[in-house]
Write a structure and sequence with these properties.
The longest helix has 19 residues, at about 80-100. This protein is α/β, with parallel strands linked by helices. Helix 7 (about 125-140) crosses helix 8 (about 155-170) and helix 9 packs across helix 10 (about 215-230).
Amino acid sequence: MNHPLLSRLEDGPLLADGAMGTMLHATGVPIDACFDALNLSDPDAISVVHRAYIAAGADIIETNTFGANRLRLEHHGLADKVKAINKRAVKLAREEREISGQPVLIAGSIGPTGRSVGAFSRTPVAEVEAIFREQAEALLEGGVDLLFIETMGSLDEMDAAVAAIRAACDLPIVAMMTFGDDGSTLSGDLPRTVLRRLVDSGVSVVGGNCSVGPGKLLPVMRMLDRDRHDVVDGDRIHLACLPNAGWPTFVGSRVFYPSSADYFAGFAIDAIDAGVGLIGGCCGTTPEHIRAMRDAIDGRRAETAGQTGEVPLENAEGATGVRIRIPALPVDPLVADEPTELAQKLGNKFVVSVEIDPPKGFNPAKALAGARMLKDAGVDAINVADSPMARVRMSAMTLCYLIQHEVGIETIVHFTTRDRSLMGLQSELLGAHAVGVRNILALRGDPPSLGDYPNSTAVYDVDSAGLIGVIKRLNSGADSAGASIGRPASFTIACAVDPTKPDLDDEVQRLHRKIEAGAHLVMSQPIYDMAVWTGFLDRYERAFGTRDVGVPVLMGILPLQSSKHAEFLHNEVPGITLTDQARERMRLAGADGRREGVRMAQDLLLEAEPQVQGIYIMPSFGRYEVAADVISVLSPDRVAAIR
C-alpha cells in the first residue's frame, strides 16, 4: 500500500510548513505558555496559522501538538487533556485543508517528552513508549495522514517514539533529530548511526530539524545522502530538512530570528541539490519563508521540466495550486441524449464507483487530484455527496461539472430534496443535464438538525421516491406540471437502500416504491457481511415473490481505518451499522488496522462480485488511495455476466 506521501516524494520535493509557536508568539502569546492548549481555548488562532501556510504553498501542515504529550502537558495541569488537545488539533488542520481545497497532507507533530531515555534514565522505556503511544493514538483517531517525530536530541527517545507509533499504526513516519555544531546529535550520535537505526526501525523519512539554521543542517543532509546509499534498504529512505531561521535573539520579552525569506529560498535549492525530498522550516520561519521556498522549488521544477510545460499554476490568490479552466458549453447542450456511460456499463461489466466529498471552501484542487488518481486506478465513476451530514460544502453539482470536464470521468451526483423546492429541484436538474451531469442519486438528505445550521429550514417538498418520479417525468420530456421541456432528458436514476436498518420490512417496501417510481439502479449503504445483503433479499422475496429487485445493484463498501474508527461509525454515524464480527476483527488488528480494513473490504468485494453488479466505495478522511488498494484485487477487465 503506497501512501500519498511516498508517491509524491517520488515525483519531486515536497514543502512542509514553518513554525507554529513563532506565529502564535507574534500575536502576543507568551513564550512560556502552553501553545498546545490553544487548540481548545483559542482554536481560531491555530486555524489562521494553518490557513496562512496553505496559502503560502505548503504541501504538508503539522498539527499544533509538538508538546501535547502527557509529561509536557502535566507542567500546565493538562495531563488529562491529551486526547482532547490532539484530536482537536487534527480537526483544525483538516478543516483548513477542506476549506482550501488543496491536497495538503496533515502531519501529526510529536515532540520529545522532556525526560531522558536510556541506560542512565530513571524513566523506564516502556513508560516513555506508553506516553508516545497515547498521543499517537489520539492523533490517529483525529485522522492524520502521517506522523512527524521532531526535535529529538536522543536517539533512544526517538527509538521509543517510533516503536510506540509502529505499535499503533502503519502510517508513514518522518523522524527528525536535532544536530549540534559538530554534526552529531545532542546525545553524541553521528548522522550515519542515526540513519542505520532509523532505517532498521521502518521509518519512511529521516532528517533533521530545529538545530541552528540551514548552514549547520545542510552538511548533515549531505552526509545522510551519501550514507543512505551504503545502508541496506537505505535507498528507499527520503531525507527531510526543516531548520530554524538562524540563532534567536531576545529583545525584551520577544524572540527574533535573523534568517530572511530570501535566504531560505536559497536554502531550498541547496537542500534539493543535497538530496533532500522534504523541505520546510522550524522555529522562526513564517509563511513568508514558506512562500519564498515554494517559489524557489517551483522555479527549479520549471527548469528541469524544460519544454514539457509542467509548471505549477497559481490560483487567484497567488497560492500555488490548480487553476480551473472552465470550458465553453456546446452550442446545443441537449443533443447528448444517449444513455450515460454508467448506464451502458451496468450489467455488462462490474462497475466501480468511489465517493468524493466536495471541499468546505472555494478550491476543488484536492477533490480533482483524487478524481484523477481514481480514474488512473480504473474507477468507472465518481460519486459526489451533497453536503453530507447537513454540513455546508461546495455545491455537489458544481464539483461534478468540474470533475467531468477537468478529469474526464463520469460522475454520480447525490441530489437531495432537503434544500430545494419542487421548482428548484427541476431547475437545477435541467442545468445539470445541460452541462452533462446526468447520473443522479435521488436522496431525501440528512436533516439540518444534524449539521452546522440546526435552525435552517428543510424543504422536503417531495421525498426520495417523489424525486425519482420528477426525474422520470423529465426523461419523458415534461416537467412535473406537464409542461414540455423541449425534448426528453436522459438521466440515469439511482436510489439508496440501507439493508442494516432495524425495520427491514419497512426498508423493503421503501426500496420497492423507489424502483416502481422509476429508479434504474440501487446503491446500498456500507455493509460488512454479505449475509446482511442476502438477508435483506430474503425479506424482499417474502414480500414480492422474487429475490431480484429488478435493477442493477452497487453495494456500499466503507474501508475501516482502525478499531476506534469502526466504533465511531457504528455508534455515531447515521446509516452505518457494523457487524459484531467486523468490529472484533478491527479490534484484533491493533496497529495494523488500516491494512486490515483494506483486507476486509477486499474480501467483501470478492464475495460480492458474483452477486451484485458493482460496488460503491466510501473512503474516510479523503484517503482515496485506499479505494485504489481495495479494487486492486479485481481482474483488469472486470467483465461480469448479466445477473
